[in-house]
Design brief:
The chain is of the alpha/beta class and about 475 residues long. It is about 30% helix and about 20% strand. Strands 1, 2, 3, 4, 5, 17, 18, 19 and 20 form a 9-stranded mixed β-sheet that branches. The structure holds zinc ion and copper (II) ion.
Length: about 475
C-alpha cells in the first residue's frame, strides 16, 4: 500500500520559514497537520496539487492587524488569504473589540471607531465572550488577540483626558485578568492617541501587571514616533521591564522630516536593549502611515489622503489640499468638518522603511484597516510587496529571509507552537506562491486590488484560497500564546 495523505503537494520548492535555504520536496498533509516532507513520489493524496515552479512556505502571520471585527463580519478574510496570510494578530494599538460590559458610548470615541464606527459590534461583554464567538463562527484564518488599554480606559473611566485613579486601575486590572484567563496573548497600548495620552507610565505598568503571570506580551503603538521617539522607546522598555514581560514595538517608524534617517539611532538603541530584556518589533512596507484624521498629523505631512469620512463621505479618497480648496477653508476647518474620519499621511522616508524592514529581528505586520472605504494599500498588499517588491525586485533580502520575517520569526516571538514552519508535525498552514510573479497590486490610487502570484493557501490543512478566489472554507482557530521560557 502506498502512503496516503489527504492532500499531497508535489514538486514544490520548500522555504521552511526558519530562514534556511530552499530545497525541493513533496509535502503530505493529513488532517490539520503536515504529515511528511520529502520524496513522496510513491505516495497518493485524496487531493493532489502540482507545485512545480512554486514556492511552498508556511502560511504568513500578520503580526499587526485591526481585524477584530472583520473576523466575525466577513470571515472569508479575502484581503488576507489572498496575500497568503493564515494567521492574524488583532487587538493592536490599544483598541480591541472586547470587553465592552455596557453598551458602547456613541458616537464611538476615536480611535475605537477604526474597528467599528457604528458601535454595533462592541457587544462582547467579557473577553471570553468575544473569543467564544470567534470559536463558534470561525474565520478563514487563525487569529490571536491582544486586549487594548484604550478600550479598557473607555469602559472604566468617565473622562479620558486624565490619568486613571487607583480604583479605575483596579477595574482595568480585573479586565486584563479576565482577558488573559480567557486566552488573550497580551495587552496593547496606543499611547499616541487622545484617549490614552493622559495615561502615565505608572498607570500602564499597573494595568498590565496581571498579564505577567500568563507570560503575556506588551505590544505598543508608542506615545511618539516622531521627535520624541527615543523617549518613547525608553518608556516602552521601562513598562515591559517593570511588568516583567516581552515587549513588542508596533509598526516601528520615524515620522516627520526632522526624524528622517534616525532609524540608525533607534535600531541601535533597540539592539542594545535586546541584551537586557526581550524586545521585538514589526513594520509595514510603506513610507506612509494611516489612522484617524487629526489636524496635527495632517500639518506634519506633506500629503494627506482622506480614507473615510462619516459626515462628508464624498471626500473619501481625495487629498486634503484638494478638500481645503473645494471647501474654501483652512486645514483645521476642513479636518473639523470631515470628522469622524481617517487618513493616510506621507510622513516617512523610504530609507528608514528599508533599514527597519531589513533589520534581522523585524517581523512583518500590515496594520491594515479593513473597514476604511479607501484603505491604505497595506491592507491588501503587504506580504506580496515584501516578497515581490522588496525581496525580488529591490534585493533588500533573500526570499528565505523575507519568508522568515513573516512566518518562523513571528511564530517564535508570539509563541505560536507548531506554526510558522514547514516540518513534519507542524500545523498545515501553507502558502504556495510563484516567486517570479508574486507582487502587490494595491496602490494609493487604487487601494483595493488582489495581489498576483499567490496560488494556493491552506489553513489547518484546509484549502481557503485557490484559483484566485476564496473557497468559502472557514477552518481558522483562536491561537493561544506559549510564552517563551
Ligand atoms: Zn498603531
Ligand atoms: Cu495599528
Amino acid at each position: 500500500m502506498p502512503q496516503a495523505f489527504d492532500i499531497l503537494i508535489r514538486n514544490a520548492t520548500v522555504i521552511d520559514g526558519t530562514g534556511a535555504e530552499r530545497c525541493s520536496a513533496d509535502v503530505g498533509v493529513s488532517g490539520d497537520r503536515i504529515a511528511a516532507v520529502g520524496d513522496l513520489t510513491d505516495a497518493r493524496g485524496k487531493t493532489e496539487i502540482d507545485a512545480a515552479g512554486l514556492i511552498l512556505a508556511p502560511g504568513f502571520i500578520d503580526s499587526h492587524t485591526h481585524d477584530d471585527r472583520i473576523l466575525l463580519s466577513a470571515g472569508e478574510m479575502t484581503a488576507k488569504v489572498s496575500q497568503g496570510v493564515t494567521t492574524v494578530v488583532g487587538g493592536n494599538c490599544g483598541i480591541s473589540l472586547a470587553p465592552m460590559p455596557k453598551p458602547v458610548r456613541k458616537p464611538v470615541t476615536p480611535p475605537l471607531d477604526l474597528l467599528d464606527e457604528s458601535g454595533d459590534w462592541y457587544r462582547y461583554r467579557r473577553f471570553a465572550d468575544y473569543l467564544e464567538a470567534l470559536g463558534e463562527q470561525p474565520a478563514a484564518t487563525n487569529s490571536a488577540m491582544l486586549v487594548g488599554h484604550t478600550t479598557l480606559r473607555a469602559i472604566t473611566m468617565d473622562e479620558l483626558d486624565r490619568p486613571a485613579t487607583p480604583s479605575e486601575i483596579a477595574a482595568m486590572q480585573a479586565h486584563v485578568e479576565e482577558a488573559m484567563a480567557a486566552g488573550a496573548i497580551g495587552v496593547s497600548t496606543g499611547l499616541a492617541y487622545p484617549p490614552a495620552q493622559a495615561a502615565t507610565t505608572e498607570e500602564v505598568i499597573e494595568v498590565c501587571q496581571p498579564m505577567a503571570a500568563y507570560g503575556g506580551l506588551y505590544a505598543t503603538h508608542m506615545r511618539d514616533e516622531g521627535d520624541h521617539t527615543i523617549d518613547s522607546l525608553e518608556e516602552s522598555f521601562r513598562i515591559a521591564r517593570a511588568v516583567g514581560v516581552q515587549l513588542l514595538i508596533s509598526h516601528h517608524k520615524l515620522a516627520g522630516a526632522n526624524n528622517h534617517g534616525r532609524s540608525v539611532e533607534t535600531l541601535a538603541l533597540i539592539e542594545g536593549q535586546m541584551r537586557k530584556q526581550h524586545v521585538c518589533l514589526d513594520c509595514y512596507p510603506y513610507a506612509a502611515s494611516s489612522t484617524i484624521l487629526t489636524a496635527d498629523h495632517a500639518r506634519g505631512s506633506p500629503k494627506t489622503i482622506v480614507t473615510w469620512s462619516k459626515s462628508l463621505p464624498q471626500y473619501t479618497g481625495k487629498e486634503l489640499d484638494e478638500v481645503m480648496a473645494m471647501m474654501g477653508c483652512d486645514l483645521d476647518e476642513a479636518v473639523r468638518r470631515l470628522q469622524p474620519a481617517g487618513a493616510i499621511y506621507f510622513r516617512m522616508h523610504e530609507d528608514d522603511v528599508r533599514r527597519i524592514l531589513a533589520y534581522a529581528p523585524t517581523m512583518i505586520g500590515s496594520d491594515g484597516l479593513p473597514h476604511d472605504e479607501n484603505p491604505h494599500p497595506r491592507l491588501w498588499g503587504t506580504f506580496p510587496r515584501i516578497l515581490g517588491h522588496y525581496s525580488r525586485d529591490t534585493g533588500l533580502f533573500p526570499l528565505e529571509t523575507a519568508v522568515h520575517k513573516m512566518t518562523g520569526l513571528t511564530a517564535l516571538e508570539f509563541g505560536f507552537a507548531d506554526r510558522g514552519v514547514v516540518r513534519e508535525g507542524a500545523y498545515a498552514d501553507i502558502t504556495l506562491f510563484d516567486p517570479d510573479t508574486v507582487i502587490d497590486r494595491a496602490t494609493f490610487e487604487r487601494p483595493i486590488a488582489l495581489s498576483e502570484g499567490i496560488d494556493t493557501v491552506l489553513v489547518n490543512g484546509t484549502v481557503v484560497w485557490r484559483d484566485g478566489r476564496s473557497t468559502g472554507a472557514r477552518p481558522g482557530r483562536v491561537l493561544r500564546r506559549q510564552a517563551p521560557q
